[in-house]
Task: structure prediction
Amino acid sequence: MDAPASGTPEEEIERERSQISAALERIRRAPSLEDLEAEKVALLGRRGFLSEKLRALGALPPAERARVGARLNDHRADIEREISGRRLALKEEGRERRLRAAALDATLPGRGRRPGAVHPLSRAIDDIVRLFQARGFVPVDGPEIEDEEHNFTALNIPPEHPARAMHDTFYLPDGRLLRTHTSPVQIRALEEQGPPLRILAVGRVYRRDADVTHMPMFHQVEGLWVDDRVTFAGLKGLLTDVLRAFFARELPVRFRPSYFPFTEPSAEVDVGCVFCEGAGCRVCKGSGWLEVLGSGLVHPALYRRLGIDPERWSGLAFGLGVERLTMLRERVSDIRYFYDNDLRFLRSPGGESYVCD
Ligand code: FA5
Result:
């Protein structure tokens, strides 16, 4: 601020007015909050322009003092009003600048959220359970850590059987093992309920296996139906029916003689290859057929061991691999995709990169 120069009172008032209006102009144009603050100090601070003038009031005669005091107070009000207006404007400009620098485009469409989906294996298990429940099967559970008695011996698999070898099975230090199939649940159900019964057991099983069609952990569904007159024809009808419903097509189904220690007769069940429609391809190794499950009529030795009369009761049993059936239904080429948690696969298990050629 210029030092006050002497002159007539009118000239002095005029000079003061032009100094104030120049100051107000500087306030309106202050380029930053710091400049504004400096301006405020220069005008209203302890040694500022107005404070000096107010201090000089004491030297004036009383009548003059009131007049000049009122004028200076008007100036102070004008200055304060301009400063707070400019401060608001500068803050708003700063906010705008920061938002622009952050390159936030509020007009862009949102990212959206895709709805979740049921895992393909869970979907297959739900379908299988529903299909068998509709045919009178009641779901039951069994332990994943089994003893040798239920996993092997009671199923007519003697101690010298190769399936018991350490290289096929995961044993615990106490001699128990991770069950290698769901068939031990058959034994537990026969022990606990006795015939007649119609049960279904779904669960994890473990084997020392690992390649594109085999996992060390996978899921099986086991069925057991023991009653007065359960027949092999009944077994064929039941499984053909369920497999066609599962694949939602009139697939060819065939029963091929096979061997399981716990069933007699035994059959492996094949469906017409879903990839080549039976013409022969890499997946079905040129045969036109794909094996999907094991089955048979319950071996009399199992009943005898449990004190059940094999002349009085007959039963059918089957065990299917859930991953295997799902790979065929969704045309998935590698069993490990089910466990990779890759969202691209989970969103589209039959998507192009995952199918068999
Ligand atoms: C059994 O486990 C018998 N308990 C099935 C059975 C039950 C037969 C009742 C008769 C009566 P198998 O070892 O074949 O059978 O296995 C059944 C199915 O499990 C196979 O068809 C296959 O689809 C699946 N499977 C076997 N090993 C693996 C593995 N390592 N990874 C994924 N699936 C497998």
